[in-house]
Amino acid sequence: MVESIRAYVLLSGIWVRSTMAYRTSFVIMTVSQFAITFVDFVALLVMFSRVDQLGGFSLSEIALLYGTSSLALGVADLALGNIEHLGRRVRDGSFDQMLIRPVPALVSMCADRFALRRVGRVGQGALVLGWALLNAPVDWTAARVVMTMAMVLSATLIFASIFVLGGAIQFWSSDSAEVANAFTYGGNFLTQYPMAIYPAELVRGVTFLIPVAFVNWYPTLYLLDRPDPFGFPSVLRFLSPAVAVLVVAVTGLVWRTGLRRYRSTGS
After folding, report:
1. DSSP string for residues in 33-101
2. What is the pLDDT of residue 113?
3. Please, which residues have CB within 8 angstroms of residue 175's CB and are 6 or more apart in sequence?
4. Across the strands, what pairs with 54?
5. Pseudo-torsion of CA 62, 194, 117, 173, nearest 10°?
6. What burial letters (b/e) apply to 123-162, b meaning 16+ CB within 10 Å?
7. What phi, psi does 225 have (nearest 5°)?
8. Lowest model confidence (mean pLDDT) among 32-36, 56-60, 236-240
């Protein structure tokens, strides 16, 4: 694991140095990433200029959901987002280059063309989350501070796993990148708002099938000391770390299975 992390840092550092050769372009692209993603939150601000609540949640409470989801997706996208291009490499055979390097193929794939400009999305999510933590009606205790840190870490692991799962599926279906995006970026959009506005059937699906509800919804119910509007067991609000570990384990299994299946282009 330590050697894999070291290899990832070295490989991504090559692309960072390449990016810094054109610093003006990097600044423009980073600011653009920040501005484009911030438009979503501006839409919330406009909405709350006309209403006081959405699904029973105030602006600061929704900002807590929004900030956690955006920050977690931003970090996962920054670190592992390039895995979504695996299908193209499988089709043209260039994935073979990853297999002959003295580092794990997953590390090579994720570090390839590392896009530092994506830090703009991370900054936007962190800014909104910081504002929400200062303004949301949370009765701060040591337990809630720990829960907040666990929520952000678990959310990042869940989104990172979904990125890798979406890439691994392309071992079987090399044209499924858009399907994977439906669960990464679609999951991000879904979790930016309170689950109370969605049908109960959808909430069950994102709890027990594709567990993106554990990104922020259940931990936030604990932070705000709110009852679950769907009547699900209260223990769910403490399970995000366990769900994240489970999703990571399943992702590792699927990735290794897909890698063993790979037979190079034309097979």
Report:
1. HHHHHHHHHHHHHHHHTT-S-BTTB-HHHHHHHHHHHHHHHHHHHHHHGGGGGHHHHHHHSTHHHHHTS
2. 86
3. 87
4. 57
5. 180
6. bbbbbbbebbbeebebeeeeebeebbeebbebbbbbbbbb
7. 55, 50
8. 32-36
Q: Which residues have CB under 8 Å from 172's CB, separation 6+?
A: 258, 261
Q: What is the pLDDT of residue 174?
A: 67
| Cβ(197)–Cβ(55) below 8 Å | yes
Q: How far is Cα 31 from Cα 193, in angstroms, rounded to an integer?
A: 25
> How far does CA 3 lie from the centroid of its chain?
24
Cα–Cα distance between 189 and 201 in angstroms, integer?
18
| Tokens found for residue 146 | 């720990």
Query: φ and ψ at 83, to 5 degrees?
Result: -65, -20
Over residues 1-27, the pLDDT tens digits come to 788 899 999 999 999 998 898 899 999
For the cut 70, the answer to whether the pLDDT of residue 267 exceeds it is no
Contact 37, 120 (CB under 8 A): yes
**How far, in Å, are 74, 195, 206 from residue 209 at the CA level?**
23, 15, 6
What distance separates the 2 farthest-apart alpha carbons in the chain? Answer: 59
pLDDT band at 85 (very low <50, low <70, confident <90, very high): confident
